[in-house]
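Handout for the seminar on molecular recognition.
Each group receives one record of this type.
Step one: identify the two inputs.
Step two: read the structure output and locate the region that could contact magnesium ion.
Step three: write two sentences on what you found, then compare them with the reference statements printed after the record.
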Amino acid sequence: MSRVTHPPPIAARLQLFAGASAAISETFRISPMPAFYLPDHAATERVGAALASTLGGGMLVTLRGELAAGKTTLVRGMLRALGWIGSVKSPTYTLVEHYFISRLYFYHFDFYRFADSEEWETAGFADYFRDDAVCLVEWPEHVSSLLPEADVELVLAHRASHAGRDLSIHPATPAGERCRSAIAAVLET
Ligand SMILES: Nc1ncnc2c1ncn2[C@@H]1O[C@H](COP(=O)(O)OP(=O)(O)O)[C@@H](O)[C@H]1O
Ligand SMILES: [Mg+2]
């Protein structure tokens, strides 16, 4: 007679899974990173507006997420909140768009098409990261060895199960932590 091993019932399997993930979190001391849900593009723009209130010279904000995740929308919301009334174009082809608002330069990069690290030198991109400039960088993973450390990284994700976006916020400096608090404050109210 052959022995048939039945899988444990669903509740027991869920318990096993919960136990295993708790053990993994404990081992690696991972604190779960809360994601905020942004139901529509206006919510993404509101995040940009909240971010605007905390930006200062010398800061670097990176924006990660697949194509159409909402990165440029967030930057547009930020620039509009700062009073920019001109167009805010995606820098997909130009690599960088420049803005000058209230005596501060804003450089919005999109490194999606960046392929040649020599171009970093020839374009003089290192000179954009200055104390009188705020840099906002889409596709930072394409230039990760060239970029200074970001104050905060914003990650936007699109799930098939809903129309909106998930946002997670990863601060790395006190200035980045202030960005996280300002964004959380508008999203949690
Ligand atoms: N939270 C959201 N929910 C639904 N659509 C959104 C949201 N945020 C942005 N969008 C829409 O996603 C599309 C792509 O946005 P975009 O900012 O150009 O993406 P990316 O710069 O990441 O490629 C736009 O049509 C924008 O209106
Ligand atoms: Mg974009």
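Reference statements: The pocket of magnesium ion (ligand 2) is lined by residues 71-72, 90, 110, 138 (CB under 6 Å). Residues 1-5, 7-32 have pLDDT under 50 and may be disordered.
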